[in-house]
């Protein structure tokens, strides 16, 4: 992934809970690619297809509230999401998102400026989001977090750090 992420935006609103991201009837599925076919299904049956081709989610306040299940960020990872920019995140979802290898960025000003289908460039090291020649700033992610994201999440990061065969 590196420190730079570029992609097309899929924008959602405030209070998108984990049941909207992946409905509870799919909690027995753990493979990100399989979960992806149901991502955002809780918002409507057409949403999983609408997400295809988007690698950045932009959300309002309290993104990921609800249950702590890891299937929600895994569904987004399986759909090819590399980063989520939100006004605010539910705390456990924020951590689970990083653990599965998706950058989680709080930048309310960027959320206000970014529109559906916009192309954005995110620099995790410098703490910037660029959209339509406008630059917005967020607290840059520490090197350790960037390393975790670069590895693809917590499990691959630990396997590498502990020299465990893949």
Any key phrases for this structure?
single chain, 166 residues, alpha/beta, Aconitase, domain 4, seven-stranded mixed sheet, 8 helices, globular
β-strand number: 7
Q: What can be said about the biggest beta sheet? A: 7 strands, mixed
SSE arrangement, N to C: EHHHEHEHEHEEEHH
Number of structural domains: 1
Overall, the morphology is: globular
> Strand share of the residues?
15-25%
User: In the CATH classification, which architecture applies?
Assistant: Alpha-Beta Barrel
Q: What is the terminal separation in angstroms?
A: 19 Å
Whole-angstrom Rg: 15 Å
The CATH topology name reads Aconitase, domain 4
Explain what the structure shows:
The chain has 166 residues and is α/β, with parallel strands linked by helices. The protein is built from eight helices and seven strands, in the order E-H-H-H-E-H-E-H-E-H-E-E-E-H-H. Helices cover 33% and strands 20% of the residues. The longest helix is centred in the middle third of the chain and has 10 residues. The two termini are 19 Å apart. The model has no long low-confidence stretch (mean pLDDT 95).
SSE map:
Layout: E1 4-11, H1 18-21, H2 32-36, H3 47-51, E2 56-59, H4 71-78, E3 83-86, H5 91-100, E4 103-106, H6 108-113, E5 119-123, E6 128-131, E7 134-137, H7 143-151, H8 154-161
Parallel strand pairs: 1-2, 2-3, 3-4
Antiparallel strand pairs: 1-5, 5-6, 6-7
Helix pairs in contact: 4-5, 7-8
In short:
The chain is of the alpha/beta class and 166 residues long.
């Amino acid at each position: 992934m590196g420190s730079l992420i570029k992609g097309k935006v899929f924008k959602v609103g405030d209070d998108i809970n984990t049941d909207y991201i992946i409905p509870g009837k799919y909690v027995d599925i753990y493979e990100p690619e399989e979960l992806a076919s149901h991502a955002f299904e809780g918002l409507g049956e057409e949403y999983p297809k609408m997400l295809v081709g988007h690698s950045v989610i932009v959300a309002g306040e309290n993104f990921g509230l609800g249950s702590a299940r890891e299937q929600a960020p895994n569904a987004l990872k399986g759909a090819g999401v590399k980063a989520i920019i939100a006004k605010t995140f539910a705390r456990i979802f924020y951590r689970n998102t990083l653990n599965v290898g998706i950058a989680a960025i709080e930048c309310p000003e960027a959320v206000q400026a970014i529109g559906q289908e916009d192309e954005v460039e995110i620099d995790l090291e410098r703490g910037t989001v660029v959209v339509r020649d406008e630059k917005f700033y967020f607290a840059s992610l520490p090197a350790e977090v960037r390393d975790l994201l670069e590895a693809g999440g917590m499990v691959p990061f630990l396997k590498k750090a502990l020299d465990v065969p893949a």
